[in-house]
Amino acid sequence: MSLPSADARQATPPVGDIAYAAAVSQAAASSTATFLMTDIEGSTRLWEEQHASMVVALEAHDALLRTAVEDAGGTVVKTTGDGLLAAFERPAASIRAALGGQRALAGHAWPTMAPLRVRMAIHAGAAETRDGDYFGPSLNRVARLLAIGHGGQVLVSSAAAALFADDLPDGASLLDRGEHHLRDLSRTEHVFQLAATDLRRDFPPLRSGAAPTNIPADLTSFVGREREAAEIQRLLGVHRLVSLVGVGGTGKTRLALHVATELVARHADGAWLVELAPLRDPGLLLPEVARSLHIADAPGQPLLDVVCDFLREKDLLLVLDNCEHMVGEAADVAERLLGACRSLQVLATSREALGVPGEATFPVPSLAIPPTLDHLDLAAVAASEAVALFVERATTTEPGFRLDATTAGPVVEICRRLDGIPLALELAAARVNVLSVEEIALGLGDRFRLLTGGRRTAVPRQQTLQAMIDWSWDLLTEADQRLLRRLSVFAGGWTLEAAAAVAGDQEDPGLPPSGASRLETLDGLGRLADRSLLVVEHGGSTRYGMLETIRQYARDRLLASGEAVTLQARHLARFRRLTEDAEPGLDGRDMAAWLGRLDTELDNLRAAMDWALDEDPEATVSMAAALNHYWRSRLVGSEGLDRLVEAIDAFGRLAGPPPGGANARLRLGARVHSTAARVAAMTGQRRDSSRAWATEAVQLATESGDAKTLSTALVSRVFVLMFASLPTDDVMGGQADAADHAASIGDWINETFAAAGRAEYQMAVDIEGANVWVVRAAEAARRSGNPFSIGLAALARGRFRGYRGDLDAAREAFGEASAQFAATGDHRMELVARSDLAHALRHAGALDDAEAAYRDVIRDWQRLGHRGAVANLLESFGFIAIERGDARHAAVLFGAAERLRIVSETAMLPHERVEYDRQVARARTQVDAASFDEAWARGAAFTIDEAVTFANNLEGAPSA
């Protein structure tokens, strides 16, 4: 079936808008819809207790809801057992369907049982179709929203509410139910409840309880450690920084994740894991913190300030795992964040303490072992933590294994030999399917006698673990040893295909492996996982990884084998090919999927580029250029631009005959300079260099003779012009040139960028003339199929409609833009769309609605740490104050905004400056100069929290 368009027009457009309407309807087709999902509350119990009645009741339920949906103009996509999923072209139709459905259910005569109580959820967003069904993030969100409701209740997402808030049926309203965490989703949802005079309004609290987290689910049971876990929780009740310290293999990570999972519900903003083991550059620690927390960049602002602004008012537990190789940097980041964020707590794992004032250290001990081998008490042996872990893991490997009078002695010997070290015990337990416990105990005895020169005295823990891994290694076949050491070249995990391509022997590791190689590698991975040498993570696709202790051991073996350089080169070839495949994908319809794939492989991409920097500069340049949209969408701080600068330096060092010829090298240089210029312009970093890079990109692209490369270079130059606050005519000329060139070669995504930018600038000087560029952006976006481009075109359309005062069309366009950006995980641009809707409301004179929208969005910008955006909204609050004749209030806001722009080095865009100067001049005519300047100075002294509180006019705001 085709996907209903959320952008369908509800009335015939004016004659002058016919081309616009046609382009818009084409651009939005099969991209955005409003969804209604329903579910019968308590259906499982009803089926168990009243099966015969439920058969009759469900038939009536299906008929009533289908009629309500179809009468409202919707389509029933499918029934879902005890509910249904419907899609609507017109957002407000979903409200009519929900009201009609609830009224029909309430008025129906249920002959054999009590009335069915049906909960409903409505969400608008982008979705994709496959085999006549919908899938994607929008469907996930509406399902999670449905799960927190109650029978008879209709919940509405903020994206949907924004589309039909002004188009509700008579007697209906939306009740604000606040921000809620939805299971498995990192972004909270602002939830509304649909209310009507004839339907129930009062329901119990929503069932959203759980706070957000990225802590992975336990793959194995948690054995022992109850006392340790309780003590760590006690320490976190007293101290804001607790570090778990101990040698590798003692289970620090496992213990920390267990404690974090237990404490998620105690922190309103959840518990978040930052994995440091894959990082080799200490400078990536803070960017990795930001990435793990989904914090976006703020142009011109130090990343530490961005992260602090994001965390400042949050009640959150941050887990820094494996700090030992960058303990100094971890200590510095932890100390700074804790100093700036009063409700933040940090749980760290390391082989040594961080040494931060106020830190509480918890030495992670080995598991408790039976005190003696004499007169074994089977119950006491079984109660031992070390024995319990060994038996649990052994039973997983060999279901028939039992702890009894025969096996207890050898098991105790194994536990004592291994000092109760969890990793060592798991490695030993993984052998019970091929060795008896007596043979395992004997093998360990021989190993440790060799290690200590025959003495049976206690073995130091690190030697114990080393000996255990040595023993496990020696028991592997030569083929499995080779596979394990080769796998250590990966960072952050790998797939079966990647393992077969890199660790196998095929000629080109960049290509998919053969079926035989894939099966052979799968068998090897299975054997290594069975021996606890690999960790298997099941999800959308299976990934494999190693505990850091095992990876370091295998890495040493790889270096000793003489294969390290060969394997690094194979790893590089694999992930260079990934970036080459991703580049067109990031420009197309599958952008969201490619961003997700690159997210998963980021640690491998980093490792490949780090190695290539010295060994294969050409590969560094190619990979950096190919990841253009990834750097913009995902990485925070300076990492993306730093890698591009490294690539530009590498390009300057290239020598010898270029692969593919001279023109290929010119294209490569143009691409990396284009990418650097665009990223620098958009993030506010190295703005002086960005103009030189853009100029160089255009020159190299022109020399190469490649029209597509030149198109990208011209658009990058446009970005630099836009963010350099140059005269409007200069910028508009560059935008037109870039759009025309892109259109001439069918480069729709770059045409969208240029045309949407030109439309925004044109609106400030010629609103009617801007329509041409809005239509052009919409058509180019439709042809590209790229969700970011479609969102950008919708953004331009919303701004245009807002300028024209057509609020219904503006709401619709901004709703689509928000949904498209959300689909790619671009929360910053999603907030841009919501902010622009507020601007449209203000321009149309709907001041109360605009003020409410600004209040809703300014806190999100503050949480994101974007001071420039907060400054823009403070100015907008000021403009509203001027319209109401309160110039003193406006002056306070202008003073606070000016200070934020100064500290964040964020300048206004030219069209913003025009309105700002006009409004400030107007305000100065409403109050005497001394009072105005005094109010301005008061605002300039505000902190960002005080300024936002003042703008929201909340209790506790500093007085003006």
What labels would you give this structure?
960 residues; alpha/beta; Alpha-Beta Plaits; Rossmann fold; 5 domains; seven-stranded mixed beta sheet; five-stranded parallel beta sheet; 42 helices
Structural commentary:
With 960 residues, this protein is an alpha/beta fold. It has 5 domains: 166 residues, Nucleotide cyclase, GGDEF domain (Alpha-Beta Plaits), CATH 3.30.70.1230; 138 residues, Rossmann fold, CATH 3.40.50.300; 97 residues; 163 residues, Serine Threonine Protein Phosphatase 5, Tetratricopeptide repeat (Alpha Horseshoe), CATH 1.25.40; 128 residues. Helices cover 59% and strands 9% of the residues. It has a 7-stranded mixed sheet with strand order 2-3-1-4-7-9-8, with helices on both faces. It has a 5-stranded parallel sheet with strand order 11-12-13-10-14, sandwiched between helices. A two-stranded antiparallel sheet has the order 5-6. The longest helix is centred in the middle third of the chain and has 23 residues. The N terminus and C terminus are likely disordered.
Overall number of domains: 5
CATH class of the largest domain: Alpha Beta
Mean pLDDT: 84
Q: Round the Cα radius of gyration to an integer and report it.
A: 31 Å
Strand order in the sheet with the most strands:
2-3-1-4-7-9-8
- The CATH superfamily of the largest domain is Nucleotide cyclase, GGDEF domain
| Head-to-tail CA distance between termini | 58 Å
Q: Which secondary-structure class do the elements indicate?
A: alpha/beta
- CATH fold title of the largest domain: Alpha-Beta Plaits
Biggest sheet overview: 7 strands, mixed
Helix content: 55-70%
What portion of residues belong to β-strands?
5-15%
Count of discrete alpha- or pi-helical segments spanning 4 or more residues: 42
